[in-house]
Amino acid sequence: MTDVMRQLSGYGQQLDATMVAPAVDDVRTQRVGAGPVRPVLDRPSRSHVPRWVAVASAAAAVVIIGGVLVIVAVQGGQSPVVDQPTNTTINSRPSTSLPTSVDVSVPLTPSGLEVVASGPEFFGSVVSDASGVIWGYGPAGLLRYDHSIDETTRWTVADDAWFDPGIFADIAPARDGGVWLYGSLVVRFDGTTFAEVIEVPGLGDTYAMAEASDGTLWASVQGAGLLQWNGSAWFETAVAVSADSLVAADDLGGVWVTEATLETAPGDWSLFAVVRYDGTQWVGYEVADLGVDVISAIHALAIEPGGNPWLATEPRGGQGPRLFSLHSGTWSTHVLPGPATSLDPTSVAIGPDGTVWAAFVDDYDGDLMVARFAGQTWTTYGPESGLDASGWVIADLAVTADGVFLGRGPELLELVDGEWMQVLPDPEAMTLYGLDLLLPVSDDEVWGVDWDTVWHYGDGVWEQYSAPDGLPAAGIQSLTLGPAGTVWVATDEGVAYLDGNRWTVVDEGPADAVASRSRGPVFASGGFAADDSLRMVAFERVEGTWTATPIEQPPLDIIDSMAVGVDGSVWIGSHGGGWTLPGKGMARYHEGVWEVIDHIGTSTIEMVGDIAVAPNGDVWTIVTARDGRGPFVVQYDGSEWTIHEGVLLVPGHDGFDLGHRLWIDATGVVYVLRPNGAGLELVVFEGVEWTVRSGDLPYLLTIGPDGSIWAWEGNLLRYPAG
Question: Computed from CA positions of residues 363, 364, 365, 369, in that sequence, does the dihedral angle turn out positive or negative?
C-alpha cells in the first residue's frame, strides 16, 4: 500500500476560536477503480477512502506532538447535556433529477465484465447481521457466509457495477436483513436485490453509518455533518463530524459518535471525544471525562447490548493502546497486559453475552493480536494461537451467538477451541491472492505473476508455478513471451524460462526487465548506473542450450521500459519514477552499438514511459520534455519521430505517472491509458484518429495481441470486445 495524505473534511460550521484547527494524518491506501455505468440509476461517485485501505485516523481537532496526533481536553467538568435543536429537512436527492427520495427493489444488472478468477479480498470489512450470518466486503466484492450450513455466496462487479471496489466505503448490518453499503449512496442489499437505494446530500461521501433499533439511519457525511434518515428524508443534527468520526447505535435507540463537535448554543461549538443521542437530547463526553488529559485518535467503537460504549485509541508516546468503557456514568480505562506499545486497534466487537473482543495490528511489523475481556481480565491471542503476521491488513471482528470471526483482507478466521482456523478461502484450494503483472496471449489465455508465483490460465484451467517448480524464490519483476512461446521472467534472484513444467534459471543476477520477440534473442536488464550494477544480457539458443552474452552497459541510469524491434534492436527508456535525474531518456542498441535518443524535434527528452513496437516496425512511446511540456505520444517510423497531438495527456509529472502506459495489438492498433477525472480511460489509435474506447478502468490493465482487455482489480477481469 502507498502512504498518502488525507485532508479532513470541513465542519460546515465555524468552530469556536479556542479550538485547534483540523490537521491531516497518514493513511495507507491503493487505488480502486469503478466499473461500467449502471443503466438503472445515475452512477454514484467513488468513495474516497474505503475502510480496508484507510487504517490511520486524524482527530476532528488535534495537536501534533512528536508526529503523533492527539485529542486534547478543552475543559473539565461534568458531561454537558445539550438539547437537540429543531431538525431541518434535507431532500435526499434533487427533485429536478430524481423525484423520489428512495428507490426500492432495484434488481441487479450484470455489468458485462467477466470475472475470470475471483480474488479472495472480501474481508476488508466484516459484520454479522441479525440472523448471525457473516458478511464481508473488500476489493473482490461482497460475500455472505452462513456458517450454520457452511454456505458461501459471492457478488462481484460481474453481477452488478455497484459491487466494484470503488463504489462504497464500507458496510453495516441491516436490521431487516442483509447489509447496508454506503459511500455516495446508501444501499441495502438483501442478498437478492438492492432493497433500498438512498442518495446522500453533502459532498458525496458517507464516512460511517449505523442503523438504530427503530430503523433510523445515522450517517457521518462529508460536508453535511451527522445526518438522520427517518425512512423518507434526511435531517440535520446538532453534530459536526470529521472524516474519522465513528458511528454506532445501541439497542435502546441511542446513537454514539466519536470525535464530534456539538452546537451547545447557537453559533457555539465544542469538541467532544464521544457524544450520544438518547432520543431527546445529546450528551457530550470530553477527554477529561474519560479520566485522562490526552488521548490519541479513536480507531474503534462498539456498544454493549445494554447500551454501554467501548472506545479504542491508538498508541501514543510509548504507551500502548487503551480502551475506555462507560458503565453507570463512570468511565474506566483498560490497558492490555504485556508489552504492547506499538499495537494499533482496528476493531472492537461485543458478543451477545457482553464479552468484549478487540483486534490489533502492530505498527512496526504488521503482527496481529486479538484480545478478549470477560469482565475482569484480558485474554490475548497471537501467533501461538494461529494468528500469523497480517502484513498491516485491517483486522475486523464479527461476533455472533455461535462464534467469533476475524476478517483480514483475503482470509476469514474463526476461533475454535482457542485456535484461529481459516474458514475462507478453503486452505486446500488454489487461491489467486493478487496479480502484479498480466501478459495476455489471447482472449482466453493469460499469464500473470505476483511476488513469487507465476499463474497461467488457459482452456478454463488455472496452473501455478513457484519455487518448488524451479522458479526463483521471490521478486518477480517482469515477464515476456520468448521464441516459440516460451515464458520468461526477470526476478530479484535471476532470469528463468519455463521448460515444460519446470523453470530453468539461465542467469542468477538480479533483473528488472525481460523482453523478446517470437524469434531471436531474449534480453534482460537490471541494476543501477549509480552503483555500477546496471547491466544487460542477451540469451540465445545454441544447439538446444540457452547461452548468455553480456552487452555493453546501457547509457541510462536505470531501465524502466524495454522492447525489442522487428529488426532485433533493443529500445530502452527511463523515467526515474518521476524524479529529474541525469541519465534519463531513451536509447537504442542496434548492431552492437548504443545510440542515445535525447531529442524529439526541438525538445530534450526527460522521461520515457512504456515502449511498444508495432507489427510494421514502428516504435511508439510516451515522453515528457525537460522544458516542462508533455507527456506526448510519439511514433518513430524508422527515419523520423512524429508527435501525436490528437491524444491529450494530463500535463506534468502527475500526468506522466498516471498516463505512461501504452500497448499495440497484433493488428497495429495503439492503446494509451490516460487519466479522466478521478478514473482512467483508454484512448485508441487505429491509423487515422484517436478515439475513446472505454472509460473508468483500473490501473493494472493490459491489452492482448487480439485486442482483448484484461485487468486485475480485486478479481481477474476480462472486458467485453469493444
Answer: negative
